[in-house]
Amino acid sequence: MTADAATGTRPRRIVLVLPTETYRAADFIAAAAEVGVEVVVATEHRPPLATEMESRLVVVDLDRPEEAAARIAAMGDRAPIDAVVGVDDQGVLTAAHAGEILGLAHNPPDAVAATRDKAQMRGVLASWGVRQPDFRVLVPGADVAEAAAAVGCPCVLKPLSLSASTGVIRADTPADAVVVAERIRRILADHGRSPDEALLIERFVPGAEVSLEALLHDGDLQVLALFDKPDPLDGPYFEETIYVTPSRLGGPEQTAVLAAAAEACRALGLRDGPVHAELRVGPGADGEVAAWVLEVAARSIGGLCSRVLRFGTGISLEQLIVEHAVGRDVADSVRTDGAAGVMMLPIPRSGVLTGVDGLDAARGVAGVTGVEITATIGRRIDALPDGGRYLGFVFARGDTPDSVESALRRAHSELTVAIVDEPRPGDGRAPA
């Protein structure tokens, strides 16, 4: 029995802002059903069989977040809305605006906008003195070599409008940075973006990289999980693969990470809901343990990675987020015992995916709890830095982080991926 049923109150009602290409629609919808929360879906395109859920569907343009938010808020005239949650990056600003219109718990739209713009986020964090990589914004016509020399090499160049490490490339010298900038502009054009948009250039920060999952309660940060990323992310591209929790970092390192993440959230003005943060840990200028903020997002972890997380009596991360959003108390929820991890299967090269063999063997590895191929057989897939999606995911659980990592690597070794060459659409260039 849900809390609402037990008290005789009306069912809670949540709007999930679901970008068309999100991995996570099914998990969030299932989570809401599991905890007895009614769902309204806000999405970019009307799905098949939409007539069966007409009263629980609104089509919005997520590139126009204020207009989209107004359409969502108007649905509150038909039935009360208790929460609006943006599931992926594309929907978080719409959710913030809708929460503001409806008077619900929400993050300020300006704060969310800063998390969606890499340059703006860097500027806000710099103004607060938050430890982060030295950076410059490369406007069209800027001297790339000069900027690279100013931030220091090696450095990392990033497009502002792409996500999932698409177009993120390391350069080891100022001359390399010039070449990298041109390549990023070609990638932007391939993705339908303006090749003349500003780029971000940052000093490369060596050290261990971690991912933090947390939940904000009126500005207070509740840590849910800290993931190690055991594969080095040194470039030239930055494809994430294995996440394992709990972290094997020492106490001082974890303390530095949590403090830096909390400071970044305060600086940005985030107040409520899920947070996903990426940080690097290493010795500071005076030798002390330090953490550098790489990214802060007003959403939970991407892809299907959340499936390895369970809290309290076994509830999912999505259930936790939904319950928090509708005002239920989840402040005491802690991750269940044991270790868990996920491997985001890398795309070995660009081309047309024709098959994946060895799935049964991978699923049979001790500790592996699931293998899911999310790329479509017969469709083109692009490796980094040109693409930003994965072949699929492997999930594992075990007694220790080491055993989980080992299981993920063994499962990956059982897979054979078949890809055939195909020129990139529109320009006839061979895949990189």
Describe this structure in words.
The protein has helices at residues 3-7, 25-34, 65-74, 89-102, 109-116, 118-127, 144-151, 174-190, 251-268, 317-325, 359-363, 401-413, and strands spanning 13-17, 38-43, 57-59, 83-86, 135-138, 155-159, 169-171, 199-203, 208-217, 220-228, 242-245, 273-283, 289-297, 310-311, 315-316, 339-345, 351-357, 368-373, 380-381, 392-398, 416-420. The protein has 432 residues and is an alpha+beta fold. Among the domains are: 3-107, Rossmann fold (3-Layer(aba) Sandwich); 134-203, ATP-grasp fold, A domain (Dna Ligase, domain 1, 2-Layer Sandwich); 343-432, Aldehyde Oxidoreductase, domain 3. The strands form six sheets. The chain has a four-stranded parallel β-sheet with strand order 3-2-1-4, with helices on both faces. Helix 2 (25-34) packs across helix 10 (317-325), helix 3 (65-74) packs across helix 4 (89-102) and helix 5 (109-116) crosses helix 6 (118-127).
